[in-house]
Specification:
The chain is α/β, with parallel strands linked by helices and 262 residues long. The protein is built from nine helices and nine strands. Helix content is 32%, strand content 18%. Bound molecules: ligand BV8 and zinc ion (ZN).
Length: 262
């Protein structure tokens, strides 16, 4: 039996499915992954360095401008076939949740409703000093001109600098999000891990958590990332190809093209 047939049977036999997603599911929407080299203005920067409170303290305008630019990039992007396949599965009767490491809103814009953001959201801002949520006016959302850096706006309550509402390295994940994710992962029959390199902790523990709880895990990735446990299935290829193909193999969504995946 091919891995695609094993994955189709595992999906057919499941009821509660968790999609665990990383930057790779948004790659086909044109959003660079963290493993991709940064482009344009940011080429000389390392995301792991930029995504820290220390970097924001050191150069708030650089970090604020980078996130404004990423927010603009996400605003220009559209959900791709992989994002769109997930709510189709839920419309076809499966109990579907999404646990994502991504800070974009492409799952929500594709129609997914149960989305847990482990690392926060690009659309949220909060005060770096008092942590209260902030709100941006349309004028404050303008993107920096080439080479221009924009100072972060100020908190209306304490005049502290506003920062993106995301989880930086060395910051704890939002309590509620992590708890919901663990509950969903420990109670699912099937976890489909899509487009993640499995480097960043504690999120990277999620597939093993699912396996330990008796679920089957399907990995969808351009590279072979599976640890080949008995209940682990590796689908090596693009998320935008494999997720729709899985649904089509189950008769959910448009029929397979004649030369389609078997
Ligand atoms: C924490 C939000 C407790 C911001 C992100 C030493 C000291 C302190 C901490 C640590 C330490 N060592 C380790 C840690 C923990 C640290 C960590 O894991 N570091 C790593 C580098 C080892 N983690 C943390 O700090 C976390 N907090 O542990 O709190 C604590 C508290 C205090 C002190 C200590 C511990 C917080 C981590 C959250 C960081 N924030 N994002 C932002 O986005 O700007 S992480 C960010 O990077 C993403 O959210 C994502 O999680 C991660 C990137 O991972 P992926 O999504 O997997 O993306 P990647 O590019 O890596 O891979 C893409 C994959 O897709 C590839 O495999 C590719 O092949 C595939 N692909 C590409 N195209 C496609 C595709 N697949 C299918 N189809 C395609 N078309
Ligand atoms: Zn404040």
């Amino acid at each position: 039996m091919s891995n695609m047939q094993r994955a189709t049977e595992a999906l057919r036999a499941s009821k509660k499915v968790v999609f665990f997603t990383g930057a790779g599911i948004s790659a086909e929407s044109g959003i660079p992954t963290f493993r991709d080299k940064l482009t344009g203005l940011w080429t000389k920067h390392d995301p792991e360095r930029l995504e820290t409170a220390a970097a924001f303290r050191e150069n708030p305008a650089l970090i604020w401008s980078w996130y404004l630019w990423r927010r603009h990039q996400v605003g220009q992007a559209k959900p791709n076939a992989a994002h769109l396949a997930i709510p189709q599965l839920s419309n076809a009767g499966w109990e579907v949740s999404v646990v994502t490491q991504n800070i974009d809103d492409l799952h929500e814009r594709a129609g997914s409703s149960q989305v847990v953001h482990l690392h926060g959201s690009l659309m949220d801002v909060k005060c770096f000093a008092c942590h209260r949520p902030g709100k941006l006016t349309p004028a404050q959302l303008g993107i920096p001109e080439e080479g221009q850096l924009i100072e972060p706006p100020r908190c209306v309550r304490c005049n502290g600098k506003l920062r993106p509402g995301v989880v930086w390295f060395r910051e704890n994940l939002p309590e509620g999000a992590w708890r919901s994710a663990v509950r969903l992962v420990k109670n699912c029959d099937l976890l489909i891990s899509v487009g993640t390199s499995g480097v960043v902790m504690p999120a990277a523990d999620i597939p093993n958590m699912a396996l330990a709880a008796g679920a089957t895990v399907i990995h969808v990735n351009l590279e072979d990332v599976g640890l080949d446990a008995a209940d682990e299935i590796m689908l090596t290829g693009a998320a935008g190809v494999f997720l729709p193909a899985l649904l089509r193999a189950l008769g959910v969504g448009a029929p397979l093209p004649p030369d389609g995946l078997t």
